[in-house]
Amino acid sequence: MRDDQLTIRQQIMQQITGMLYSARELSVELGISQSQVDGHMPHILRSVSRDSSRLFVMESSRCYECDYEFLTRTRLTRPSRCPQCRGKKISNPRYKIEWREWKTKR
Fold first, then answer.
1. Once rounded to an integer, what is the mean pLDDT over residues 56-69?
2. CA 104 to CA 91: how far, in whole Å?
3. Are 80 and 88 in contact (CB under 8 A)?
4. What is the pLDDT of residue 2?
5. 36 in a domain, yes or no?
6. Residue 64 is part of which domain span?
7. Is the per-residue pLDDT at 99 higher than 70?
8. pLDDT, tens digit, 9 for 90 and up, residues 36-51
9. What mean pLDDT value characterizes the chain?
């Protein structure tokens, strides 16, 4: 299928397969708003989680001021404040789809 025939979600999935991208980077790359990318991510997560051959990976957001990492956060969007220092300078989470490698039994 050509890129112009793919839906936005399919384009996002194609883009993040094998490479980490933030919602902001994807919005620039695909020419859509960051909030549109954020809206598609839960659906992409559901689609990928149903496929046993792929794995959805999310690199956590991090506070630039105190280096706190949001490891337990389950929401796919950027947090507004750091719970540790109350800072607002927080990196965007980054997403990636990886292919799972299956171990064969001998």
1. 93
2. 39
3. yes
4. 58
5. yes
6. 3-99
7. yes
8. 999 999 999 999 999 8
9. 89
For residue 10, give the H/E element and its range: helix 8-16
CA dihedral (30, 36, 38, 39) in degrees, to 10, reads -130
Contact 59, 70 (CB under 8 A): no
Number of domains composing the chain: 1
| 58 residue type, one letter | M
- Outline where DSSP puts E strands in 1-106: 21-22, 54-59, 94-99
- Contact status, residue 101 vs residue 21, Cβ threshold 8 Å: no
Tokens representing residue 50 in the block: 């149903």
Q: Would 67 be classed as within a structural domain?
A: yes
What CATH code is carried by the domain that includes residue 66?
Answer: 1.10.10
pLDDT at position 71 over 70:
yes
- Environment class of 82 (CB within 10 Å of its CB; exposed 0-12, middle 13-18, buried 19+): buried
Q: What percent of the chain has pLDDT over 90?
A: 74
